[in-house]
Write the structure tokens for this entry.
Amino acid sequence: MQIISYLCGTIFVLDTNRYDTSVTYLLTMYHIPQDKRAQTSAQKIESSLERLLETYAFNQISVSQICDESGVSRTTFYRLFDIPADIIQWYCDTKSQALWDALKQEDKTVLELPFQFNVRYIFNHPEALELAYKAGRLDIADAAFYNNVATMLDEMKHKYQLNETDMKMSAAIVSSIITSAFKVWMKESKKESVDLLYERIIRIVQHIR
């Protein structure tokens, strides 16, 4: 079985027999209404988690610490989130939605290269990935961007003749490339500019065609 993966205008044919396609992605466990008060509380909680990560490992941070740091009550916390990992999930989903909204505002030329736009936007707005990286939970960011890329590909499936399996595999490949590249970029203290990083990713991807 073969799959066509659409990346930055280039078509790659991959043998799916080499890959495990039975991937399970995270379910969101936050429940935040769109009213201003709830959104403000969620933002306070997220900011407090960022500050706590400067001192503690993610698995050492409790809900009580987050509430003390943010000034938000435990009742409010549990109204919005179930566990601390849900904060990362919400933040990644929020940033991923912002990316999708930004992409829809671009002209058709940009829409022809969704992978390029994804990389440049995400690395120029790295806050969600940085939070996930510091918490050691890039898997959460990967799941959020998987859903985002899958939505983009769904918009273009007729043009590029992508079936459901094609879209799932393509989304998994793209999101994994982005989060893996980000991990290396962070470890090297963001030495490369976003443009150089994008060029490097493309060179590497082309080598595995």
Remarks:
- The chain has two domains: 2-28+85-207, 36-80.
- The beta strands are 2-7, 10-15.
- The first strand starts at residue 2 and ends at 7.
